């Protein structure tokens, strides 16, 4: 049986719009690292707070490790759910040393065990020598790790983290993703991490839950999510993409679009006529005599690649444009005509 189960969870703050979280179903296995990914206001924090017990759902049920923590008849308080929570702003106690911050949740432990466990988790997060410092004497990344150590100290079944990397600069952020994942895996902790950053989600999690307007759009492993986005929202929110309309050929392997025939990575499972496809910019490779061509309208240099905006409208009435990536060593002139191929593995049929 799954370790965490959310069934039909709905939360409406009675604002005029749609519910903050709408009929959410999610099951998580023991030891799994899951991220909730989505734009601002899509219901990520609300979902996390309901799992923690800081917010009550309007309806639905929630199980953790085989016991019901919320349903129509009961609501287990946060401190009895066996959950560790890391808030976005760390919320360390400023006047307590790092050691005391970490030991805070261990008040029911014996003095000896408390001391031992505090030392152990501080070593786990690489801060074994920092127990006597105050939070103000640590860097942002170190404070982040203290918050994680404090949450891990009582050996919770589950860790919930809300935007844990948002206050860090790019370099530190990358290192912290790596460290946090290692720490969670070592302790075999089940984790739900909230982020609006695709890189955070992809690098750290087993599965990613993409949300929009309180509704789950897709749940999948990062690679599958990127290669087979379920709908236009996911295709556009997770990475960049080109959405094209077309007609599915009778062999179910190709789609006829205004730029020509595009191959799918596999036969379509469904018989449809009018379809929409997503083509990733890196799925378009510049070649000498490619099947597709267009005029370069804009070049944006990013260091590791360059993004070309291609106008395909030569023979068309509409101004249709595509974004494709080109290797940096190639000089591309604005106004020139380039030709390219499309790699089927980076093409997907998507729902509207
Ligand atoms: N206590 C509250 N009272 C009223 N509305 C709320 C409350 N908390 C959240 N909301 C609303 O619920 C929706 C979801 O909010 P939530 O905080 O879950 O979003 P989020 O996905 O975490 O966004 P962000 O990325 O900006 O943190 C928003 O429309 C928000 O305004
Ligand atoms: Mg939030």
UniProtKB/TrEMBL annotation:
GO terms for molecular function: ABC-type quaternary ammonium compound transporting activity; ATP binding; ATP hydrolysis activity. This is Carnitine transport ATP-binding protein OpuCA. The complex is composed of two ATP-binding proteins (OpuCA), two transmembrane proteins (OpuCB and OpuCD) and a solute-binding protein (OpuCC). Coiled coil: none annotated. The keyword Cell division does not apply. Residues 4-238 form the ABC transporter domain. It catalyses: a quaternary ammonium(out) + ATP + H2O = a quaternary ammonium(in) + ADP + phosphate + H(+). Keywords: ATP-binding, Cell inner membrane, Cell membrane, Membrane, Nucleotide-binding, Translocase, Transport. SUPFAM superfamilies: MOP-like, P-loop containing nucleoside triphosphate hydrolases. Gene3D superfamilies: 2.40.50.100, P-loop containing nucleotide triphosphate hydrolases (3.40.50.300). Its EC number is 7.6.2.9.
